[in-house]
Design goal:
The protein has 658 residues and is of the alpha/beta class. The chain has 25 helices and 21 strands. 44% of the residues lie in helices and 15% in strands. An eight-stranded parallel beta barrel has the order 14-15-16-17-18-19-20-21, surrounded by six helices.
């Protein structure tokens, strides 16, 4: 009998295979006919069951064995291996993961700031809320304990199939709503996959075959699986117990033809109080209007906390049985930073809550004045504060934050989300849409920055010991004109719609940039011959390698602009993997070696008269902005959420200069 093909892999997925990364890994595994299995520490699980995969508790930097057997095993092994070695696999760039990273790690242990009788929970989302209670306490669903036999077994199985299909249909309809953020869509997609998980379904149908009703089978299976998750040490995976319970409840409600209270009816200004709220249900609530969320269950890593933070809704979770004391309260106050909840606060405490809420709102409103602000250098040169984005879904957030264009449009996400290479037409439509949205500001598009650490359908990457120093970025693109030319043609066409600029990643030599120019020239000639409208664009270099810094003078003769990618530049200059937690102290952009590299790049660009910008995380650090401007940078690109404070800092600098 043929043996499966296997490969030992060090997992690089940030935070490991928790909900969304596991769900998307399973989806990728299911796209292949081959059987796929992952083994960790002697335990194995099917890679086509997100539940079993999550229960395996595969964490970042774990060593696993990936086994594949079937007709397409070579392709499957390569694609799935690449996924496991991609730090951003399964994450919507700068969305859900960023929310998790910014959370507190434990309940606040501060002394009460309000009264000795205030309740303490888990500080899950910062902010202060005060308002009337909207109780969400759905009735408990209990098993009917019916015994099924004969033809009734097939009928119960059919009922279960219908109920699951209905739940997934409702979830998909929710995913399709434009009001949801990419992170929320990812969360609901993960719930939908749990509802159709092979392992859970096998257990449910087995229970029905043994004589249980569909309702009893669903409740027993979901309770047992949730219990397995609750025993896990990792907080992210432990929090998935709530997701399993929530999915089980949705299927049970469908079987009973019932619905829980519609959270879309929560009044504006109310505090949502509950034992627990599923992520799917919570996305139905008017999150921009409610004053806060208090739950008996939940943690800083639960989906309810992530959603609350993404909408800036104050939240205190894990309050336990104390939540019941809130049911009859007329007024409740909560502090999402300290984890405190006050029942029917007196006038003095209400005044304190109002004061804090007003201060936070004032700060938020104060930053809005910078939305249209255009900072300048002492010589009058405009400093562009732009946004880093990865898809058109992020356009609104960037514009609302006051982005003066896009300093980094990551095109690899477009490629990674497809089951085949995106066509020229698909790319053109997306690039043109972004260009139109930010017109007349510029949109700097980074050409495909992909390598063996990131899986892309249609590109087979060789196994490399260190893919970060391997066949990636411009190196791969120049070797694969069949991949690179459609992107360049799409960008030339999209430049008609707005101010498109293009930058090339992983450059180490001016000859590489000249080769890209020749390919662009060829693409332009082809478009002209085909009668398709196009515009030439400015071509720049992403400075992220020490080599690029050392030859910046030569590159400046060929490039129209520089954009410094501090994330990779720091790890390459410091010879320290930025994904290795043991080397975190070395990954410091303020290290003299890194700051000197930035200064040398700025000096070379300024001398040549080209724009020098920055698109790494350091661009949004208000403590470093004065130093970057002093070096000569005239463009700073960052996550949209960082833009208001960056503009505020630049406004303060402008005031000093005047």
């Amino acid at each position: 009998m043929d043996q499966p093909t296997e490969r030992t892999i060090i997992v690089r997925v940030r935070e490991g295979l928790h909900a969304r990364p596991a769900t998307r890994f399973v989806k990728l595994a299911k796209s292949f006919a081959s059987d796929v299995e992952i083994e960790k520490s002697g335990k194995s699980a099917s890679a086509k069951s997100s539940v079993k995969l999550m229960l395996l508790s595969v964490m970042e930097n774990d060593e696993v064995i990936l086994r594949v057997k079937g007709e397409d095993e070579a392709e499957a092994l390569e694609s799935l291996s690449n996924y496991l070695q991609d730090p951003n696999a399964g994450l919507d760039e700068d969305e859900g993961h960023a929310a998790v990273q910014q959370t507190p790690s434990a309940p606040a242990q501060q002394d009460s700031q309000f009264s000795a009788t205030s309740l303490k929970g888990i500080a899950a989302s910062e902010g202060v809320g005060l308002g009337p209670v909207f109780g969400y306490f759905p009735e408990e669903i209990v098993a009917d304990n019916l015994k099924i036999s004969g033809a009734g077994i097939a009928a119960e199985a059919k009922k279960l199939e219908t109920a699951i299909a209905a739940v997934r249909h409702n979830m998909q309809a929710s995913i399709d709503e434009k009001s949801l953020s990419p992170a929320e869509r990812g969360i609901i997609q993960a719930l939908s996959e749990i509802a159709a998980d092979d392992a859970m379904l096998d257990d449910m149908f087995a229970a029905i075959s043994s004589g249980q009703s569909a309702l009893s089978a669903v409740l027993a299976t979901s309770a047992r699986t949730a219990e397995d998750f609750s025993k896990m040490a990792d907080p992210y995976l432990k929090a998935r117990a709530d997701d399993v319970r929530a999915v089980g409840r949705q299927i049970a409600l469908s079987l009973l033809n019932k619905k829980d209270t519609d959270l879309s009816k929560v009044p504006a200004g109310a505090i949502l109080v509950a034992d627990d709220v599923g992520a799917f249900e919570l996305t139905r609530a008017p999150l921009k209007k409610i004053a806060g969320i208090i739950c008996a269950r939940g943690s800083v890593t639960s989906h309810i906390a992530i959603i609350a933070r993404s909408h800036s809704v104050p939240a205190v979770l894990g309050l336990g049985d104390a939540t019941k004391t809130l049911i009859d309260a007329k007024l409740v106050g909560l502090d999402g930073k300290s984890g405190e909840v006050v029942v029917d606060p007196d006038q003095a405490i209400q005044a304190e809550f109002a004061k804090r809420k007003a201060a936070a709102q004032s700060e938020h409103e104060a930053l809005k004045v910078y939305k249209a602000f255009q900072p300048t250098r002492a010589d009058g040169t405009v400093i562009e504060v732009a946004a880093n984005i990865g898809s058109p879904d992020e356009i609104t957030a960037a514009l609302d934050a006051g982005a003066m264009g896009v300093g980094l449009f990551r095109t690899e996400l477009l490629f990674m989300q497809q089951k085949e290479l995106p066509s020229e037409e698909v790319q053109f439509e997306i690039y043109a849409r972004v260009a139109k949205a930010f017109k007349p500001h510029s949109v700097i598009v980074r050409t495909l920055d992909i390598g063996g650490d990131k899986p892309v359908a249609g590109i087979e990457f060789p196994h490399e010991e260190n893919p970060f120093l391997g066949w990636r970025g411009v190196r791969m693109c120049l070797d694969r004109p069949d991949v690179f030319k459609p992107q360049l043609r799409a960008l030339l066409r999209a430049a008609v719609a707005g101010n498109i600029k293009v930058m090339v990643p992983m450059i180490v030599d001016a000859a590489e940039l000249r080769a890209v120019k020749e390919l662009i020239k060829t693409c332009a000639q082809e478009l002209a011959a085909e009668g398709k409208p196009y515009e030439e664009f400015a071509l720049g270099v992403m400075i992220e390698t020490p080599a690029a810094v050392m030859v910046a003078d030569d590159l400046a003769k060929e490039a129209s602009f520089f954009s410094i990618g501090t994330n990779d530049l720091t790890q390459y200059v410091m010879a320290a993997d930025r994904l290795n937690p043991r080397l975190a102290k070395l990954n410091d952009v303020t290290h003299p070696a890194v700051m000197r590299a930035i200064a040398l790049t700025a000096e070379a660009g300024t001398k040549a008269g080209i724009m020098v910008g920055m698109c790494g995380e350091a661009a949004g650090r208000v403590d470093l902005i004065p130093r970057f401007i002093a070096m000569g940078l005239t463009e700073l690109s960052m996550s949209p959420s960082m833009i208001p404070r960056a503009k505020e800092k630049l406004a303060q600098m402008n005031a000093v200069m005047r």
